[in-house]
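Risk register update: the risk of archive-format incompatibility is retired. Evidence:
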Amino acid sequence: MKRGKRNGRQNRFALNLLKLNKCRCIFRYISTSKNQYWIMKLERQTPRMAREIIEREMKERTGTLSLYNCGLKEIPQEVFEMEWLEKLVITNNYDILDSHLTPEKLMETLINSKDPNFLSEIPREIGRLQNLKQLKIVGDEGEGRWAITTFDSISELSNLEELLLGRTKITDVSGVGNLKKIRRLGLLDNLISDISWIKYLSTLEY
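Archived output:
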């Protein structure tokens, strides 16, 4: 009986948080050799289109996640749990080489692409994506420049081979100098003033 009352209070608390913070509540069933239990996560609401793309990749595990014009203000936490990813693209500028979708699914995606992304940060959690080989995060021109100012965990992406980071307010990406496998690098229209670290990139092609 006490457990039922406690669960009731927890549920009411979660609902209040949802109303106040516009979060979404995620319940997950965890099964181990010793324990089976539910956990609850509260996250900011992910735009529907982005959520559908992420859920599709979680099911199909193609290794590529491309998020165009999804109305993202932040990178959803689910992305950092997709440790099998080898390619991550977040931008508003479509490139056919970025997508793994069939022509039919691609057309559907483009038709439904209405809200531009506008990121303000790249969370440190992106360092969990240890299999990542290609990363593309590019904002828009002029006033559409994304408000990202730092990328502290860049050096943790040790398998990164291609990095395209553009149209942001980032001033320092010296951590790139520690990436031993980087072959292609694009830093278009940022606020970076010092690239002396580039001399350490012996594998860089262009």
